[in-house]
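Why do we bother with holo predictions? Because pocket geometry can differ from the apo form. Keep that in mind while you read this record for phosphoric acid mono(formamide)ester.
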Amino acid sequence: MSSDLITMDDLTNDEILELLEQASSLLPVARGESYLPLLQGKVLGNMFFEPSTRTRMSFETAMKRLGGGVVNLGALASSSVAKGETLYDTMRMVDGYCDVAALRHPRQGAAQYAADACEIPILNAGDGAGQHPTQTLLDLFTIMQAHGRFDLNVVMVGDLRYGRTVHSLSHALARFGATLTFVAPPALGMPGDIVKHLKADGADVSESEDLFGNLAAADVIYMTRIQKERFPDEDEYRKVAGIYKLSRADLNDAKESMIIMHPLPRVDEINPDVDGTPHAHYFEQAFNGVVTRMALLCRVLGVEVKT
Ligand code: CP
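The structure, written out:
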């Protein structure tokens, strides 16, 4: 792989499978059952220009569980971004302070821009409505844990237009032979260029507005939040807010093995009464961000994973 991770195109299928295997071997370290200081002396720059709980904290946990250090950009209001410092200048500083950086930014393309400006590996932690490849690694890990394979019926639901997690995940799953159903209202459908690209690569893709009609055949239901912050007009958001909601009572016809995933945070897409069902995998999914990011950090820093 390239030392940057900007999109899933930066990883071959074999590299993805190897990362997932290494991540699996790191589970005891992620749980704190053993300590493995593979990244002692290395420093991660956590550069979050947009809010984050899971991605930022799991990167930090991954680094610390492996003995490394972390410096955070912190609140934008208390950084020199508030004085008007450009992304380019900010990243040039981080290039000198850190060995690797995770970057989240509201502008699509910002991660590639930063990678072009820096010598250190840049890991795209979400660029606007673009891509979120490190989320895809933990999503793939979660699916592999539950099903042991990827050639499954995967139904992606909600805001597929602005949801960067589904942009990256659909691409990766198609490469591994999954059948994809995109469930969204017309205003929030998967961008046409992504659908075209997936179909041109031979992926089995269909589009629908009906969540419940697609439940019984699903192996994975991947719910997403409507990304209020990306709507240019709040009235447009209100028209689609709350459009898809899953409750325990909706799951009666689901396959026993069907798993429900969500990159989180959720708003009202999944009723808390689903949390206690065996279908709910979203909290485990969030935990899996630690092991997959551990494996990724080792790889881009050239450290062999030996457990
Ligand atoms: N899944 C995800 O990206 O969550 P955060 O926005 O909390 O990082």
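The chain has two domains: 8-131+287-300, 133-286.
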